[in-house]
Amino acid sequence: MKHHLLILSVALFLFSCSSKKNRKQEQVKGTTEVKLQHPDAKDKPLREKVKNNIEEKKAEEKKEVVVELPEVQREFRAAWIATVANINWPSKNFLSTDEQKQEAIQILDFLKNNNFNAAIFQVRPSSDALYQSDLEPWSYFLTGEQGKAPFPYYDPLEFWVEEAHKRGIELHVWLNPYRAHHTSGGKLTESSMAKKMGNSVVRLKQGWYWFDPSKQSTQDHASRVVMDIVKRYNIDGVHFDDYFYPYAEYNGGQDFPDSDSWNEYKKSGGTLTRADWRRNSVNTFVERIYKEIKAEKNFVKFGISPFGIWKPGYPAGIQGSSQYDQLYADAKLWLNKGWVDYYTPQLYWPIQPAKQSFTTLLKWWESENTMRRHLWPGINTVGKRTAEYSTEIVNQIAAMRNIVPDSKGIVHWSLAGLTKNPSMAKAIFEGPYQNKVLIPRTPWLNANPMLKPTLLLTSEKDFMFAKWQHKQIDQVFHWVLYTNYGGEWSYDILDPSITARELSKTKNGKKLQYVAVKAVDRLSNESPYIAEKIK
To answer: What local confidence, expressed as pLDDT, does residue 27 receive?
Structure first.
């Protein structure tokens, strides 16, 4: 009996397990069938189409269009804009704020329309300021009264920088490091640095006031002024002209009156001659300014425009004044040492005669350019208002291009030689300046590599719409837009605010085949290009 009950219990147990297992398998099978359930036939082609389109798009995005773009022409084209004695701007020292702004915009528009790319703007003509400064007074040449701010208030330098950059024009600030008061600068007031720093300033016989370049207080003050501008303004360069120790005629032909600082130097054990001591003071200051600018903002270029002749006889046959002996400016040394980013010797003489030849002197300065800095000579565009003189200036530009082919550039003295002489401006614009150019690169100044821009092309009925962007838009100073019609490339240099253009699908019977874009930074370094092929 017990045996039968045991067999029956085992059988019931096995049947129960079998039933549970079958139910579990049925449940799993049902779940699996739901997951594997296929979509309706009508949905299948659509999904496959979307999937294929996505895959094709990704493949297109990964495929980079490779082209060979033409090299962009480069040349530094600048004009000095003098504020001292109201030579160029403002035209009068009693203009309203709006009138000053209108004149500034007219000047910058003129430069842009004539394919210039830089302005050298005088902001400190005589230890005064055409910008807001806590170190020196507002300029007499701005408002007619030293120390008086423009009204309604604005900051002229800030305005000039902003308007220049809108037009793709570099703005270099031009300072006179040692001149304390100009004879056309109105009466001497209590706000004048000639009064405030009287122990560092001397009066010259012709009415000028001059900082003593050998005094440490002079060098420290001038350094503070330069660095204040560099720190606070978005400038592209700092520029000194040829005024170091003054020309002898400013003191009635007599020696510079620095006996107190010279005697102090001798008492301290100094062994240099008086001339070498003066030159050493200027050398020390020039080196200091260059290094201080680079430590603060590496991208701000430092330039000097010394008198065009270093010494008579250099090179052989050259005659004229010696800045080395009269201005105590060893300009050759500064170039040899590389204490500048660009050098603009004032070569205000024609190509002939040989005794002060533009080409002979430029070749000599180029031979002294051992650190391979930019050598962009200054030329006298004002000169004469004749067709022959316009031809002379055009020939000087051509000569410069042959003598310094790797870094071309010219600075025109001054703006008035162009704006007040239409025939001169026309000869230059229709001749050597007929095309836009970029400024030469400055490879010894470090810059973060620019990223590649993005480019989107949209085909419209009558044109191709091109739109480009950049992740580092604040670093973009120019765009270069390239187009290829029928296998021929051309390019256009655009202002930073232009980020789109309508392009004709055909030009002169040739179809648009490619479009490419590069971004250019403030040191004229180009980004990698992005190109698209027209389908």
So the answer is: 37
